[in-house]
Automatic annotation (TrEMBL), chain A:
Biological process (GO), any one: amino acid transport
Name of the protein described by the UniProt record: Branched-chain amino acid ABC transporter permease
Subcellular location: Cell membrane
GO cellular component, one term: plasma membrane
From TrEMBL, chain B:
Signal peptide extent: 1-26
Lineage of producing organism: Bacteria, Pseudomonadati, Pseudomonadota, Alphaproteobacteria, Acetobacterales
Protein name: ABC transporter substrate-binding protein
Annotated organism of origin: Caldovatus sediminis
Similarity comment: Belongs to the leucine-binding protein family.
Top-rank taxon, per record: Bacteria
Residues covered by the Leucine-binding protein domain: 31-357
Length: 288, 394
């Protein structure tokens, strides 16, 4: 019973982190139709910006996280505006552009910070305990920030004119453009919003796990898996799928071990996709 | 002096000058290229960078002496490197890449997956390879040009487990390692040695690339072990495992019968107070001033800080021995002759001291370069130090 409850707590923590990552990934596909292979790079970059802000600039951790969000959002918006925007309808070209950006980011981090993990600790330490159950406070803080960020994003997309404009562009770009929506302005903002979410996750999560230039490698795989399971382009689907992935990973690893657990996760996703090839919320997939 | 005689004298002087110039040119243009093959990025980067640093130091030492004497030629030594990212395919590609640049001698690779990937390709190119790794088949009679920088876990695990049991009195251990050859080959040997000392051992494996070990930690602690051993988990992974073990309430000692990386483990775990009670296999007696002098030599010759990982001190012996064997064989191209010379070299290093060629009983071939090693210990959050353990010849 102890292991069952502990696995549940771990699953919630993992699910929240995966949701934040998957939201940015699915947002870019849903609105622009671009698969962002640089998503893991923005995660790692967010971690390093926060690390540099704390260790070199001496900023308090919350401001360092804010700096990471601003830096990754700005880089994403500029990259979209000056490079992706020119080829936004060419899927192969945008794939190469984002993959190339990932290589540039990870190699740049390697050159600047070196290959070894720096000492980067979460400012909130300690563990809540109830009998044999435990919850590190840092995980609790990350969970709360993730929940707040997901809620804020939902409000932004579904309750503001900006969100309505983005959804209109996602539904039908031509009609939306004739109605006065400006892709040249809105696309960079959407891209920056998504990369800012990746940067936020990196700044929050890497002090809990580990920071290295290759920290983004597994992030891309997890984000891709989650978003495909939820239905490419679906915000609700990404959140639900992230929770499923988090729980499957936690329970399978605890009860079946690290090797079999990883296998079970992929088999579960495969089975779900066989039943629903468009993903759990496939109806919301952006019309190509 | 007659006209003909004058001409002869001039001709003789010119000829002598040409001969001298040609000879001097041949002596200075010869170059021996050494390949450094290993992980230069990712969680195992510490090991690869230490290996690269050792190759560069051995080359700098040789060049500072005026180069290697290879037959009648005086050759400079240069080092080319390749980042394998700790993968078999990366290592195989690296061997091809380095061979295409004229490399005949490889220092590395470090890990078992890399060694498995590199061996067939290196054999095809007839390269001499000085590999590390704890693979059960790291070397063997079928790989006569592959040497092992040891000793391996079959040599160093028994004395360390005996000393750890004396200190901590444990009765059970859970060993955690990656689920590829780099983890399974060493964890299974470690487990066997623990059992030989009357300690119940369980093995737990994880997918390389795992970023959050909380589920693995929960599973490890379900068997209520007295000790958790991180074996050959890369230092970055091991540091996170240690941190999450402590968060989960595990207060027992943590062992590490695997690759070195204590500094990074302490850093990622969150400090020596978090690590608290820890014992590990150290590749060299790191508190010996002669061993530490290698780092001073590195600073002096290469004018920069040496790599952090203590593997530097072990790898430098392998690189030095390779260069000595090239000189003794008198060839930088015939790797069979260099290998024969290497087998005959006595294992004696100015910094690490006397060692022995081992490997016959475990690998079936006496090509394991075994040198004195150490056992490190942290007790109650205090660094106790590294104890020297000598090896015996086979």
């Amino acid at each position: 019973m102890h292991e069952f409850l502990t696995a549940g707590i771990i699953g919630i923590s993992l699910g929240a982190q995966y949701a934040l990552l998957a939201l940015g990934f699915t947002l870019i596909f849903g609105i622009l139709g671009v698969i962002n292979f640089a998503h893991g790079g923005f995660y790692a970059l967010g971690g390093y910006v926060a690390y540099a802000a704390v260790s070199q600039a001496g900023l308090p951790f919350p401001l360092a996280v804010l700096a990471a969000v601003v830096a990754t959002a700005a880089l994403g918006a500029l990259y979209e505006r000056f490079l992706i925007e020119r080829l936004v309808d060419d899927h192969l070209a945008t794939m190469m552009l984002t993959l190339g950006l990932y290589l540039v980011i990870s190699t740049g981090l390697l050159a600047v910070f070196g290959p070894q993990s720096p000492e980067f600790s979460f400012p909130v330490q300690g563990t809540l305990r109830a009998g044999t159950l435990y919850l590190p406070l840092e995980n609790l803080v990350v969970l709360a920030v993730c929940a707040a960020a997901i809620g804020a994003l939902w409000l932004l997309i579904y309750r503001t004119d900006f969100g309505r404009a983005l959804r209109a562009l996602a539904d039908d770009r031509k009609v939306a453009t004739t109605q006065g929506m400006r892709p040249g302005l809105l696309f960079p903002l959407a891209f920056g919003l998504a990369t800012g979410l990746a940067g936020l996750t990196g700044a929050l999560v890497t002090p809990i796990l580990a920071l290295s230039p290759s920290a983004g490698d597994p992030v891309l795989v997890t984000s891709f898996l989650t978003v495909i399971l939820g239905g490419l382009g679906s915000i609700a689907g990404a959140v639900v799928a992230a929770v499923i992935v988090g729980f499957v990973e936690a329970y399978a690893s605890v009860y079946l071990g690290g090797s079999t657990g990883a296998l079970i996760l992929f088999v579960t996703v495969l089975v779900i996709l066989l039943a629903r090839p468009t993903g759990l919320f496939g109806r919301e997939i952006r019309g190509a | 002096m007659g006209r003909i005689a004058k001409r002869s004298l001039v001709a003789a002087v010119v000829a002598a000058g040409l001969t001298f110039t040609a000879g001097a040119g041949a002596q200075t243009t010869c170059e021996v290229r050494i390949g450094a093959l290993g992980p230069m990025s990712g969680p195992a980067a510490q090991w690869g960078l230490a290996m690269l640093g050792a190759a560069e130091l051995a080359a700098a030492e040789a060049n500072a002496r005026g180069g290697l004497q290879v037959g009648s030629q005086r050759c400079s030594v240069s080092v080319l490197s390749y980042d394998t990212r700790y993968t078999a395919e990366g290592a195989a590609a690296g061997v091809n890449n380095l061979a295409s640049q004229g490399v005949r001698f490889l220092i590395g690779p470090v890990g078992s997956p890399e060694v498995t990937g590199a061996k067939p390709v290196a054999t095809r190119h007839r390269l001499l390879m000085f590999a590390n790794s704890y693979a059960k088949n790291a070397i063997g009679p079928q790989w006569p040009l592959v040497f092992h920088l040891g000793p391996g876990p079959s040599e160093w695990a028994p004395p360390i487990v005996r000393l750890a049991k004396e200190q901590f009195g444990m009765r059970s251990v859970a060993i955690v390692a990656p689920n590829d050859q780099g983890g399974t080959d060493i964890a299974s040997v470690d487990a066997e040695v623990y059992r030989q000392h009357g300690i119940t051992a369980t093995e737990e494996y994880y997918q390389r690339g795992t970023t959050n070990f909380a589920p693995i930690v929960t599973r490890l602690l379900a068997s209520r072990p007295d000790v958790v051993d991180t074996a050959s988990s890369p230092p970055g992974d091991a540091g996170l495992i240690v941190r999450q073990l402590r968060q989960a309430g595990f207060t027992g000692p943590i062992g590490r019968l695997g690759g070195p990386g204590t500094e990074e483990i302490i850093r990622v775990a969150g400090g020596i107070d978090v690590v608290r009670n820890f014992y590990w296999y150290e590749v060299a007696p790191t508190e010996d001033p002669r061993v530490r002098a290698i780092s001073d030599e590195y600073r002096r010759l290469l004018n920069r800080e040496p790599p952090e990982n203590t593997n530097l001190w072990l790898w430098v012996v392998g690189a030095r021995m390779t260069l000595r064997a090239i000189e003794r064989a008198g060839t930088a191209t015939d790797t069979n002759r260099v290998a024969a010379a290497l087998r005959e070299l006595p294992v004696e290093d100015p910094n690490l001291g006397r060692g022995a060629w081992t490997g016959q009983s475990f690998f079936g071939i006496n090509q394991e370069l075994s040198l004195p090693f150490g056992m490190g210990m942290i007790l109650d959050g205090r660094m106790v130090g590294v104890r020297r353990i000598d090896v015996s010849p086979q």
